[in-house]
Amino acid sequence: MRKVADCREFPSESNCSLCITGEEEEVVRAAAEHAVSVHGHQDGKELRDQIRATLKDELVLQHT
Question: Which of 7, 21, 35, 37 has the fewest other C-beta atoms within 10 Å?
């Protein structure tokens, strides 16, 4: 199951609208890099654990 990390779900001064979707480890890595470079967070296990805890399953629309 693909996972989603969506900055719109968290308040920020920049009103960031980035949404990252992919396999769980890809999303955690990309979201951590984004959190550090854009939002000024410190990378580490705690940040990645927090990101992992907020991931949601990707909703897949079925076309009929």
Answer: 37
Report which residue type is found at 60. Answer: V
Domain assignments of the chain as residue spans, ordered by start: 3-57
User: In the numeric block, which tokens belong to residue 18?
Assistant: 């980035």
CA distance 43 to 60: 30
**What is the pTM assigned to this prediction?**
0.86
pLDDT by position in tens, the chain (length 64): 899 999 998 877 788 999 999 999 999 999 999 999 999 999 999 999 999 999 999 987 766 6
Which position has the token pair 């705690």?
46
Which CA distances in Å does 32 have to 20, 28, 36?
11, 6, 6
